[in-house]
């Protein structure tokens, strides 16, 4: 690995220690310092940890003049989620949330004598799969148009969510004969939530998009595009969701933003 | 912060370096020979104590030189008087750091 990449990695790691409201400015300062000290190996960047730890222990400093090149500090962007649950905004939290639910469902199913039979458990799997396949009744399977190269992580994330959703639905359905129908229903509505959650995420960092803005007017639908625009708070890009999908390009479209936009975002980590 | 505050030798050296025109972290490191893990936290402490203040370089200047903008540090009035007191305490300080 190149020393520059190692330095960047070290500073990004240290940035996690810095209080969030200071992180962007702190990172900008360290990146500039590393740019000027690029021939000194990693000895300079290792000091970032001590610097970050000092800030963590002693709290925020007075803001610098011309913070990030603005005469007056801009108010930080607030997080306004569109439809997603803020608890599952990050991909890690989302998977952890589903994993906790899955473990709970398995534990409850294992504790009840009626649902301990593995054959019964397996017999409910087809119902769950049929429910998943019926999900397009309530929500489209189409995930949108994204640039090439970002799809692998998104698919792995979606598969992980489906795999965690499966024990939640199947174990809940196996609790008693009266709950058997929950396997296809859980599959259908679970899949619907997973797809909608997936469509609301940034293809780069897989975090939930935020700050939806309506663009255009429904009354001018034949003249111009109208719909919603959501943004990644890390500055990776914007998502355009058309309304209604039947008139303008039916699939939502992702627009990448290059790093020069990062100063406008509250958490411009890349 | 009182002007007769007794700074550590390291903090006084960094203050002197900034006063001598080494106004960003890497330059202070180079001139003082101190490691980055000492210089940056010390500069944060000096800034918190209002002995120095920082400002961002104008983006247009950095853009013209094709490099990222830097954060520059300068002494405040309290910093100058504290430095003067420190130079009396550490007579070799003015010889150690030159512009």
Describe this structure in words.
- The complex is a heterodimer of chains A (270) and B (99).
- Chain A has 270 residues and is of the alpha+beta class.
- Chain A folds into three domains: 3-69, no CATH class; 86-199, no CATH class; 210-264.
- Chain A is built from seven helices and four strands.
- Chain B is 56% helix and 10% strand.
- A two-stranded antiparallel sheet of chain B has the order 1-2.
- In chain B, helix 1 (9-19) packs across helix 3 (36-48), helix 1 crosses helix 5 and helix 2 (25-32) crosses helix 3.
- Classes of the chains: A alpha+beta (270), B mainly alpha (99).
- Chains A and B meet through helix 2 and helix 3 of A and helix 2, helix 3 and strand 1 of B.
The share of residues in extended strands of chain A comes to: 5-15%
Helix-strand pattern of chain B = HHHEHEHH
Mean pLDDT of chain B: 85
Q: Bin the helical content of chain B.
A: 55-70%
- Indicate the proportion of strand residues of chain B: 5-15%
- Named CATH topology of chain B: Arc Repressor Mutant, subunit A
- The CATH superfamily title of chain B: Winged helix-like DNA-binding domain superfamily/Winged helix DNA-binding domain
């Amino acid at each position: 690995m190149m020393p520059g990449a190692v330095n960047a990695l070290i500073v990004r790691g240290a940035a996690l220690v810095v209080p969030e409201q200071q992180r962007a400015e702190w990172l900008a300062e360290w990146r500039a310092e590393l740019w000027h000290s690029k021939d000194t190996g990693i000895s300079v960047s290792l000091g970032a940890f001590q610097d970050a730890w000092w800030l963590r222990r002693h709290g925020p400093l007075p803001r610098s003049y011309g913070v990030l090149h603005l005469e007056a500090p801009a108010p930080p962007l607030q997080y306004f989620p569109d439809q997603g649950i803020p608890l599952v905004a990050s991909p890690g939290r989302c998977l952890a949330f589903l994993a906790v639910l899955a473990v709970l469902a398995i534990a409850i199913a294992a504790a009840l004598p009626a649902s301990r039979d593995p054959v019964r458990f397996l017999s409910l799997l087809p119902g769950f799969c049929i429910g998943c396949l019926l999900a397009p009744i309530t929500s489209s399977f189409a995930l949108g148009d994204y640039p090439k190269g970002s799809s692998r992580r998104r698919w792995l994330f979606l598969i992980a969510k489906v795999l965690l959703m499966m024990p939640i639905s199947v174990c809940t359905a196996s609790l008693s004969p009266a709950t058997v129908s929950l396997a296809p229903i859980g599959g259908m509505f679970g899949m619907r939530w997973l797809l909608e959650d997936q469509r609301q995420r940034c293809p780069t960092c897989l975090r939930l998009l935020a700050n939806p803005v309506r663009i255009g007017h429904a009354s001018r639908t034949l003249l111009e595009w109208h719909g919603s625009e959501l943004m990644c708070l890390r500055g990776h890009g914007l998502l355009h969701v058309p309304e209604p999908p039947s008139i303008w390009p039916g699939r939502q479209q992702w627009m990448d933003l290059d790093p020069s936009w990062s100063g406008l975002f509250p958490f411009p980590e890349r | 912060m009182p002007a007769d505050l007794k700074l550590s030798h390291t903090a006084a050296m960094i203050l002197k370096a900034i006063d001598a025109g080494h106004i960003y972290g890497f330059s202070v490191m180079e001139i003082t020979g101190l490691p980055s893990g000492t210089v940056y936290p010390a500069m944060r402490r000096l800034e918190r104590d209002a002995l120095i203040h920082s400002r961002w370089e104008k983006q247009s200047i950095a853009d013209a030189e094709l490099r990222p903008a830097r954060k520059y540090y300068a002494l405040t009035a309290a910093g100058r008087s504290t430095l003067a007191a420190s130079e009396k305490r550490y007579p070799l300080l003015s010889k150690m750091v030159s512009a």
